[in-house]
Amino acid sequence: xxxxSIRPRLEALARRFPVVTVTGPRQSGxxxxxxxxxxRKRYVSLEAVDAREHARDDPRGFLDxxxxxxxxxxxxxxxxxxxxxxxxxxxxxxxGRFVLTxxxxxxxxxxxxxxxxxxxxFLQLLPLGLDEIRHAKTPPGDxxxxxxxxxxxxxFDRELDPPDWLDAYVTAYVERDVRQILNVGDLISFQTFLxxxxxxxxxxxxxxxxxxxxxxxHNTAKAWLSVLETSFLxxxxxxxxxxxxxxxxxxxxxxxxxxxxxxxxxxxxEPAQLAAHPLRGPIFETWVVSEILKSRLNAxxxxxxxxxxxxxxxxxxxxxxxAGTLLAVEAKSGRTIAADFTRSLESFEAQMEGxxxxxxxxxxxxxxxxxxxxxxxxxxxxxxxxxxxxxAKP
Length: 394
Hints:
With 394 residues, the chain is of the alpha/beta class. The chain has three domains: 7-124, P-loop containing nucleotide triphosphate hydrolases (Rossmann fold), CATH 3.40.50; 130-278, Orthogonal Bundle (Arc Repressor Mutant, subunit A), CATH 1.10.10; 291-392, 3-Layer(aba) Sandwich (Trna Endonuclease, Chain: A, domain 1). The protein has helices at 7-14, 30-37, 49-57, 59-64, 81-91, 105-115, 130-133, 143-149, 154-157, 162-182, 187-199, 207-214, 218-230, 259-265, 271-275, 280-298, 343-352; strands at 19-23, 42-45, 70-73, 98-102, 120-124, 203-204, 234-237, 253-256, 305-309, 315-321, 325-332, 360-367, 373-375, 378-382. Helix 8 (143-149) crosses helix 14 (259-265) and helix 10 packs across helix 13 (218-230). The protein starts with 6 loop residues before the first helix and ends in a 12-residue tail after the last strand.
């Protein structure tokens, strides 16, 4: 198992809460993390038919056999169990008694917020970030291989071929989960929708256009995109709302959580193909934004992440909001830093002068080369140092 950056946070929460819930996409390493962190706890997977039926048919009897606590894996498969777990935890609220994992964000969080409010802490485990990939037996050494391979742990633990494994992943998990959540009958249209969504990563969400291109209605596109979010495959990056009047674009951006899956859906089968791909810029932007998101979640911080775009075309790829500070981040895939790479960051700083509340702005250019230092007040951050940025600080 590769060391996971979120583990200290998991251990700390288990010392304070009777229940800790770890959510995230399938195969992101939730089960491995929890079993390694709590090796003495009994492990029960609710993916197993017998365990799931026991939990559904006799929840009290099921929990009676777990008086010392347990790791309950894929708990969204038996959502009614959570109501009975509430009584069990109230009777014996020992810290770290139960550890729950789940791969369906919306459904699981709704159930837990209703049944275990105030009793459970939450963590979100995404695929490996660059800081974790460094510990792999044979970590990729160049930018395009890092992005193309993505961060699913099994690809490093077993050194599998990414396209072969991701093909099986989409069939075994993504399409199955969609059927379970929405009972989608037209799987071919959904597959088309999924690939079209990939082609729009790092772009503004345009559901009507996306649905029309996939041959489905606006409402269907909306529902399918929500399922992808629920399954932790994509996320919508909100627009940054500064006090700048009505000049801002307020539509969110779409990003994929894992660039390996993103490349697979775009038909990119090797790193060299990605290096010359017409979408390499948006793919690089998605990778940078997802790395920032992972670093914050692993530190137990809220995402506090947005992007900025005004109607004159000024855009900042990521803005991290801190206490009295804004971290403005621009992502450029080029290895050579062109003269205009920092222009949008400089313009953003100028626009924010005098805007209340007054906040200190620190600007960063994450690029595909290896240059470091500062240029016109902007910190140059090479791609292989993206995990060393100040994103994970409160």
